Amino acid sequence: xxxxxxxxxxxxxxxxxxxxxxxxxxxxxxxxxxxxxxxxxxxxxxxxxxxxxxxxxxxxxxxxxxxxxxxxxxxxxxxxxxxxxxxxxxxxxxxxxxxxxxxxxxxxxxxxxxxxxxxxxxxxxxxxxxxxxxxxxxxxxxxxxxxxxxxxxxxxxxxxxxxxxxxxxxxxxxxxxxxxxxxxxxxxxxxxxxxxxxxxxxxxxxxxxxxxxxxxxxxxxxxxxxxxxxxxxxxxxxxxxxxxxxxxxxxxxxxxxxxxxxxxxxxxxxxxxxxxxxxxxxxxxxxxxxxxxxxxxxxxxxxxxxxxxxxxxxxxxxxxxxxxxxxxxxxxxxxxxxxxxxxxxxxxxxxxxxxxxxxxxxxxx
Length: 365
Description:
Helix content is 26%, strand content 13%.
């Protein structure tokens, strides 16, 4: 906001085009983030709520703001996309310098989710080619009660000009992403329906509008260096212990868990509509289901579990190398035509290990 006010003061006839920013950024996105949060924090302060707020939820508009057609993975700072990253980093730094929530949830359009988490996202275009059925993604970040520690930003002034707001590679997370600002122990992602993508001929050529690639990559970051050979890589999620993923027939290439499994204690998956009163009716809705061949969908779902079983089976377990994983939850069992673990030998740790609701001990198949 200070930047915009300075530009308006110093440059006569300053226009949106002269700043190379869209009117949506200049007059909508930035002020909504800045004034919305400022008003909320003033309310919390006036009513002595700052120490009592335990969770914080951000909800964006259903369709998300309009973006330019060019959607590169590494935006320049002066573009509308670069400014959204900058504003998001300032938003979270401002929040966590005043409040200390142990849970943060974001309900946002897929593109907005990338900005609000300062994650690189592998796609082109403001509303991606085959994902028009996904109005929102949900990201839920939590701290375990036993591992709660105050926000390191709490009560400290924020140096907004120094925030590391833009990811340097794809996949990747910026240094001041909300994912990096607290030692989150639990992450839940709900990415909605992938059904429309199954009927697209461009499926193999276009990226998925998902932050999961950047989150997985952050657990085993590749080294990144500046021109002066300064190492930039870091591990934003060293405390992550539980990961939950919810979607409707996601692609198996999305869900390679090899980088997650070594540090997780629990993996919780739901990859088909829930068979409950509150579950999605998408499979019985001809308009949303379209002309998708459901055999392709079930093949992808089973491939995820077969891939997971293979990764567990290949794990070398010794007295010195005991996996942290204690529990794998499959919420799709009512759908499964056959047990994807059937015929696969899985050597489990001496500790109780729950797979699909059954206890597994060392040496059992």
